[in-house]
Each structure stands twice: as C-alpha cells, then as structure tokens.
Amino acid sequence: METPGYTTLTRQSGLMREMQVIAHNIANASTIGFRREGVVFSEFVARLGDEPSLSMADGNARMVDLGQAGLSQTGGTYDLGIQGEGFFLIATPEGERLTRAGSFTPSSEGVLVNPDGHAVLDAGGAPVAVPVGARTVAISSDGTMSADGTPVAQIGLWQPADPLSLRHQAGTLFSADALEPAEAAVIRQGFVEESNVEPIAEIARMIEVQRAYEMGQKFLDAEDQRQRGVIQTLGR
To answer: By the number of CB atoms within 10 A of the CB, which of 22, 109, 181, 199 ranks highest?
Structure first.
C-alpha cells in the first residue's frame, strides 16, 4: 500500500475510536454524574526527501468534558449534587477515585458509600461516618454533615491539580495525578447531578463521523482499484 492508503487508514482508525466514544456517551445520557468524553486528534508530519510531506493522523487521546450538568431534585437525605468544579472522593480497591455521581447510602457499618459499596471520604481523606439513630441529618453547602444539629463530619470536595491529568477509569469514576480542595464548589443536599451528555449533539456528531468514515472508505476502494489497474497494465 502506498502513502495515500496509509494516511487514510490512520484517519479511519481515529474515526472508528471516535465513533465508539460517541456511542458510549449516548448510552450514558441518563447516567447520574456521567461526564461526556471526546477524542483528540493529533497530526504527525514527516518529510520524505524531495517528495511531498507525509501527514499521519492519530486519535488515541481522550478529553473529558467537565461542563456543569443539570441538578435533579430527589429529596433523598444522602443524594448530593455538586455545583461548580469539584468531585467527591471515593475509596476503591484500586485506589482513590473522583466522581460527580452523588447518590450515596449509609452502609451496615455506618459508613457513607456509593452504589458499589465504596466509602465516601471526608475533607481529611477518611471515610464519612453516618451517625446511627439520628432523627435528622443535614448536609450544608460546604459539605458539613450535622446530626440533630450537631456537626459530625465534612464531606470532601476535590479537583485535579492539573485538569489534563484527569483519566476516566470506569463508569463515573476518574483518577488524577494530584488533588487539591475544590473550594469554589458547593453541595446541594437532596439533588443529584445528571449526565452532561447532549444526545442530539452526539447524534449529529455521530452522523458527521460516519460520513467522514464512508468517504475515507470510498477513497481506499478507489485507490485499490487504481493499483490493481496499474498492476494489470504492467502485467500485459
């Protein structure tokens, strides 16, 4: 295969990855706390002596859309939505993870956990203990948890020191190289944050990617026919 074919194949590979990411976004349009992802394309250009330069596309990098999503009111005592830049910190077997999915419940051990049973951490990095037998539990905008009017814990809000280090791990969980307190973010008790995926925009982008992929495939087919024709002509 000659240079035009290799160049097109790298682009097709990147478009295929973008199509997979878009499909994943659409599938999670209703997932609480889900962050939309996108594919970042880069270009590698090499000089080929006296011939025209060779340009190769690479679509391996992903970006996470940190845009604020809408808050949906549930009225749940341990349903928490975040306004602003910040994440809850979760202790998982693989290490500490960030999430915007704030649908929590008290465990049988009296610890606040996410739906997977992993502990929510406080501002000091320790599991948040839920008071047993408390009649009312209130959580203020800064994360302070009060039981019957007495402060008992403060749920931590964190953000990556370098936003570019944020990496999607699984579901609604993320990791980052270094964390710092998210002082500008606030917590809303009785709310959960929805997914920030806009289905109509994602479907429109999917159509664009599909058309671009089909155009590249037509070029590859035409290039294959051209090379076959040259070989047949030289064979005569």
So the answer is: 22
